[in-house]
Amino acid sequence: MEPILMMDLIPQYRRMQAEMDEAVLGVIRSGQYINGDAVRSFSDALSEYTGSEFVIPCANGTDALQIALMAFDLQPGDEVIVPAFTFIAAAEAAALLQLNLVPADVDPRTFNIDVQKLESLISPKTKVIVPVHLFGQTADMAPILSIARKYGLYVLEDNAQSIGSVYTFPDGKQQQAGTIGDSGILSFFPTKNLGCYGDGGALLTGDASFARKLRMIALHGRSQKYFHEIIGCNSRLDTLQAAVLMVKLRYLDACIQARKTSAMQYDAGLSTRIDLLETPYCIPCSTHVYNQYTLKIKNGQRDKLQKYLKEKGIPTMVYYPTPLQDQPSVGKYLKLRGDLSESDTLCRSVLSLPMHTELTAEQIRYIIKQIMNF
After folding, report:
1. What secondary structure does DSSP assign to 82-111, as a single string?
2. Are 81 and 118 in contact (CB under 8 A)?
3. Four-way CATH pick for 252-373: 1.10.4160.10, 3.90.1150.10, 3.30.70.1060, 3.40.50.2000
């Protein structure tokens, strides 16, 4: 059996090597290293794939969050609701703009923002809700949109981990994660389901005027060369990375299916040990694309299990060990309201197993066996 890795990108490259080499060399030979044809081609293809009318590529997912928040014309001290259990990027982008952060507790089953607790967090200063579609499935967007409309709030979807996840509204309408709110963001970090060979990101919106503003902000605040109408930044998707992503986008659905197959094998082997752990819960209104396969380990055994699996040659990760309210970097921007106990508990109990397109059935059987042995 091959060594087990949390993420194995090399075999994935080998499967598409001929297309990838041709695409990358084509960019090098073209000399179009910034905003080349590959960027426009990828934007168009991503628009078709996601159903988002407008796609604005940028340098990374964190930049995308900041650009979107800048486009909302927020003022220092305005409040942004962000899940307490997630990566720091959304909170960091808001803090850089001197916005205050209101941590929201999450549903312990889905790991996504708890819509039952959401409305109690809103104040007259609240301007934006940032649902993070964590680990591969969409947050429950219908009630989030309803609350946002009631209070006149923006909805910015952090879809860094869940491209391809499909949300079904109560009336049967379906939309991809990231295309539902006022804007959505994507990250193309190499370990994402659609990852490039470096950094990359994009913004999604269905509003032409807002899309124009996002493009301006990402390009030094200008709509024409050397004429800068608003304050912006310099955030571009590199042409080489766009060429890589164009190839990978063609394989995305197959890669998602491979992850689902691995997840089903994990589920089948682990769901009998409910005394020790809980396997991922799939919310009925969303498909799951398994950017991560994250267990909840019971009875305070998470760290012991992680150590045991490491001894058996099985890597694992804790996403995430520290909730937002305990992050020193954003402490002065926090506005704490309500209970955050579920986020605290998850930080002490979650454990992510290897999940990528190159996992073999043999490797998964071995992982399951060692967890059962523990």
Report:
1. EESSS-THHHHHHHHTT-EEEEE-B-TTT-
2. yes
3. 3.90.1150.10
pLDDT digits (tens, 9 = 90+) for 225-276: 999 999 999 999 999 999 999 999 999 999 999 999 999 999 999 998 888 9
Q: What's the pLDDT tens digit per position in 153-212?
A: 999 999 999 999 999 999 999 999 999 999 999 999 999 999 999 999 999 999 999 999
Domain locations along the chain = 9-104+112-246, 252-373
Angle at CA of residue 210, ends 208 and 215, nearest 5°? 95
Nearest CA-CA partner of 316 in 1, 3, 2, 4: 4
Distances (CA, A) of 316 to 4, 6, 51: 10, 7, 34
Contact of 66 with 88, CB cutoff 8 Å: no
CATH number assigned to the domain covering 9-104+112-246: 3.40.640.10
**Residue 185: helix, strand or coil by DSSP?**
strand
For residues 202 and 246, what is the distance between their CA atoms, to the nearest angstrom? 13
The residue with tokens 């708890």 is 114
